[in-house]
Design brief:
3-stranded antiparallel β-sheet; 58% helix
Length: 155
Amino acid sequence: MEQGIPARTTGYLLWQVVNRWQRRQKQILAPFGLTPVQFLLLAGLQFLAATSPRPVTQVALARHCRTDPMMTSQVLRVLEGQKLISRRSHDVDGRAMVLAVTERGQTLVMRAGEAVSVSELAFFSALGEDVPAFGNALAVLAGEKPRRRVPAGRG
């Protein structure tokens, strides 16, 4: 590093990109009355509810979204107060809370999701054809197993 000026290290550049991305997400979601974390949990809950054969619990949602369970609980209380989700005690495990997206929440997450998708396409368009490789690299850094690349013409 140069004195007082961060070098173009990968970590520093990632930090800059994340900050820029977060600012953009806040701007995109503000008209919907959602924060990025609220949107993440709402969209994650809608996804899990549509794909899981079991009722979705707060613990399962936090695990899926990779969020802190206590913070997840606090944000879900806010979403419940806004009538975007409902929470009830689990039928079998009295300590667990079962979650559902309300009709109002489904409408909101769909509208907000469209805006987020448009924003995401615009944000990452600078990468051109490298977007899938960048996404795969981020997945690896997030702790997922690397996907095996199949050479062109094989498959």
